[in-house]
TrEMBL record:
It catalyses: cyclobutadipyrimidine (in DNA) = 2 pyrimidine residues (in DNA). Signal peptide: none annotated. Gene3D superfamilies: 1.25.40.80, DNA Cyclobutane Dipyrimidine Photolyase, subunit A, domain 3, HUPs. Belongs to the DNA photolyase class-2 family. It comes from Trapa incisa. This is Deoxyribodipyrimidine photo-lyase. Its EC number is 4.1.99.3. The lineage of its organism: Eukaryota, Viridiplantae, Streptophyta, Embryophyta, Tracheophyta. It comes from the Eukaryota. One of its GO terms (molecular function) is DNA binding. Residues 26-159 form the Photolyase/cryptochrome alpha/beta domain. PROSITE patterns: DNA_PHOTOLYASES_2_2, PHR_CRY_ALPHA_BETA. Involved in repair of UV radiation-induced DNA damage. Catalyzes the light-dependent monomerization (300-600 nm) of cyclobutylpyrimidine dimers (CPDs), which are formed between adjacent bases on the same DNA strand upon exposure to ultraviolet radiation. Required for plant survival in the presence of UV-B light. Not involved in the repair of (6-4) photoproducts. GO terms for biological process: photoreactive repair; UV protection. Keywords: DNA damage, DNA repair, DNA-binding, FAD, Flavoprotein, Lyase.
Length: 491
């Protein structure tokens, strides 16, 4: 069993920097990034626990990047509305101050630590290289009085515990994860109240102005209305009495989740998991509690929630080229390059693909679903990405376009699962070699006829047309509201 450090196992976090011996204890700061929640948050639990043990105050800091990895109104609006609720919850229920910074976290976070005299920085784990580089910069800038703990509160089993190497497939990874679940898939300890109040006050945050600015600046990709942001809404989607996944929709998950017309069978949790508004560990714990009712559905859900999600983090953590042809297995890279110059029946530009201007009505529907709905069905994502490989000049361009569109329009884009999904579809990551054919080489092939055999293609196209029509009507209605003359107040 892993040793414990207060309320949290030492194996769940790692020290990115250790203070010099004998340094006097100062405040604890939790730099929140990937796990934007109060409940079931190992990083917050650890920060408060360490502050109480040292009898020092604790604060939460969040740095708002400028359109991180191309995020637009769709993603930023969802995130900011969730953070607005989080600030209220954390300050009212825990009396922990919430500081919001904007700009380069490599500057804002070290400056804040210096100003408040903090000696412990707790931060979320992410395998994405932009944030990893930022943490390296922060570690080099802070004084030798500061210790930095990186906490994996996103995965059930911390990524460095699950495996110490890049895993080839789910088959090689599954046994390692399942062996560790009895130790790590456990209930969360109670989040204690801080013993010491924070000295001073933080600047008020004009959330409405921030949200309005983000929506205006990123208006090219507008917000969606099918998912309400925040922790409370996330828990409602998971186990709400009216339409919760575990309470009302779970039974058909294993049999209907791959049918693009059966969207009700899906959990709907991916936006909340991406922004950390709900813990994957909480989702897994609650699912286990109802396993007796629907064992096959729960087992399938846990495979996706734990094994597949955490395999994506493993890939991005141990493979720095997680969004490049350089990150493909050698057999796939060789095969793709050998067929890169094969003749294509169609070649489309990025602009044509973005506007869904292809000869394939099924592909066009999947692209429009993503653009207008913010979420493409998982089965269609595979077909969508593989057709991009088929219709572009080579695998490098295909992967670049695939990631660009995914990150721009998917509400859960810019995520390890998204990068691995693109890499699986185009570069064969976590897959095996298949029968060799033109363009694809040994990469798994999908086509229109195969989709027609699996589900009602015409029904899906009609479903997307309705989604697009509803989205356009809503956009026109919102535009009319914005154009209405404002009432003048009288004094």
């Amino acid at each position: 069993m892993a040793a414990a450090s207060g309320a949290v196992r030492t194996s769940r976090f790692r020290a990115l920097k250790t203070a010099r011996p004998g340094a006097e204890a100062g405040p604890v700061v939790y730099w929140m990034f990937r796990d934007q929640r109060v409940r079931d948050n190992w990083a917050l639990i650890h920060a408060v626990d360490q502050a109480n043990r040292a009898n020092v105050p604790v604060a939460v800091a969040f740095n708002l990047f400028d359109q991180f990895l191309g995020a637009r109104a769709r993603q930023l609006g969802f995130m900011l509305r969730g953070l607005k609720q989080l600030q209220r919850d954390i300050e009212e229920t825990l009396n922990i101050p919430f500081f919001l910074f904007q700009g380069d976290a490599g500057e804002t976070i070290p400056n804040f630590l210096e100003e408040c005299g903090a000696t412990l920085l707790v931060t979320d784990f992410t395998p994405l290289r932009q944030i990893r580089k930022c943490k390296e910069l922060i570690s080099s800038k802070v004084s030798d009085r500061v210790t930095i703990h990186e906490m994996d509160a996103h995965n059930v089993v911390p990524v460095w515990v699950a495996s110490d190497k890049l895993e080839y497939s789910a088959k090689t990874f599954r046994g390692k994860i399942n062996k560790l679940l009895p130790e790590y898939l456990i209930d969360f300890p109670t989040l204690e109240l801080p013993n010491r109040r924070w000295d001073g006050s933080c600047q008020p945050i004009d959330w409405d102005d921030l949200i309005a600015h983000a929506i205006s600046k990123g208006a090219e990709v507008p917000e969606v209305h099918w998912c309400i942001p925040g922790e409370t809404a996330a828990l409602e989607v998971l186990k709400g009495k009216e339409n919760g996944f575990l309470t009302k929709r779970l039974k058909n998950y294993s049999t209907e989740r791959n049918n693009p017309l059966k969207t009700h069978a899906l959990s709907g949790l991916s936006p909340y998991l991406h922004f950390g508004q709900i813990s994957a560990q909480r989702c897994a714990l609650e699912a286990k509690r109802v396993r007796q009712l629907h064992p096959q559905a729960v087992d399938t859900f846990l495979e996706e929630m734990i094994v597949r999600r955490e395999l994506a983090d493993n890939y991005c953590f141990y493979q720095l080229h997680y969004d490049s042809l350089k990150g493909a297995w050698e057999w796939a890279k060789k095969s793709l390059l050998e067929h890169a110059s094969d003749r294509r029946e169609h070649v489309y530009t990025r602009e044509q693909l973005e506007k869904a201007q292809t000869a394939d009505p099924l592909w066009n529907a999947s692209q429009l679903e993503m653009v207008h709905h913010g979420k493409m069905h998982g089965y269609m994502r595979m077909y969508w990405a593989k057709k991009i490989l088929e219709w572009t000049k080579g695998p490098e361009e295909a992967l670049e376009i695939c990631i660009y569109l995914n990150d721009k329009y998917e509400i859960d884009g810019r995520d390890p699962s998204g990068y691995v999904g693109c890499m699986w579809s185009i570069c064969g990551v976590h897959d095996q070699g298949w029968k060799e054919r033109p363009v694809f080489g040994k990469i798994r092939y999908m086509n229109y006829a195969g989709c027609r055999r699996k589900f009602d293609v015409d029904g899906y196209i009609s479903y997307v047309k309705r989604l697009v029509g509803d989205a356009k009507k809503r956009k026109r209605a919102e535009a009319l509201l914005d154009e209405r003359p404002q009432k003048q107040s009288c004094c």
